[in-house]
Amino acid sequence: MWERPDATKQARIRIARTEAEALVQSPRLLVGNTSCRVEILPDLEKAKQRCFHCLERGHLAQRCSGADRTAMCVRCGSLEHRAKDCANELKCIRCGGNHRIAALGCGLRTADTQVVINAR
Ligand SMILES: [Zn+2]
Ligand SMILES: [Zn+2]
Ligand SMILES: [Zn+2]
Asked: Parallel, antiparallel, or unpaired for β 9-15 and 28-31?
């Protein structure tokens, strides 16, 4: 918890998505004697980061510990051609969905949900 200039208090926690959803079911959460408002923060800033090494989102190539997919077609995951020569259907090799690999919103990690708790 820390004080914000408008004298409200805010805490951010990171929990699994299912827990976060359970938490926001109750519009008011009691922390001590303070009733708090709970919101789920979409991890947009993080999701905007795109790694050129493994093609996934949420980190940058310098911090990548994933597979080297630099030669991979981002449309179908093939190593035989690049996306500009791709004649296959779009298929995300990460989640199997109908989008380029790790498109924005692809397989949002369930264990990485940021929750904001506002106290007044
Ligand atoms: Zn990476
Ligand atoms: Zn392809
Ligand atoms: Zn996907």
From this structure: unpaired
Q: What is the pLDDT of residues 58-81, one digit of tens each?
A: 888 999 999 999 999 999 999 999
Interval between CA 93 and ligand 2 midpoint (Å)? 11
Whole-prediction pTM value? 0.53
Q: How far apart are CA 37 and CA 88, in angstroms?
A: 47
Statement: residue 42 has pLDDT above 80: no
As a whole number of Å, the end-to-end CA separation of the chain is 12
**Residues with Cβ within 5 Å of ion ligand 2?**
73, 75-76, 78, 86, 88
Q: How many other C-beta atoms are found inside a 10 Å radius of the C-beta of residue 119?
A: 15
Distance CA(65)–CA(39), nearest Å, equals 31
